[in-house]
Amino acid sequence: MARQRIIGKIQPIPKVWLSKKELAAYLGVTTRYIEMNINTNPKVDIYRPSERIVLYNKENIDQIVRRSKI
Description:
- The chain has 70 residues and is an alpha+beta fold.
- The chain contains 3 helices and 3 strands; from the N terminus they run βααββα.
- The chain has a single domain, classed as Arc Repressor Mutant, subunit A (Orthogonal Bundle).
- The chain has helices spanning 20-27, 31-38, 58-67, and strands at residues 17-18, 46-47, 55-57.
- Strands 1-3-2 form a 3-stranded antiparallel β-sheet.
- The chain is elongated, with a radius of gyration of 18 Å.
């Protein structure tokens, strides 16, 4: 009899940094809104690995949205 290999369930790693398109879809707004309002907000954690790529911290965005009184 051959030994059976037990394979565990793979847990997905939660995404921490979002692209502009992903952030727009997550917030339900356009990428233009992100460029005009989110990029100019000094409270938003932005990571720029290159000149063209901008990444946004999802946890930071969640905190800002929770604190806003909309």
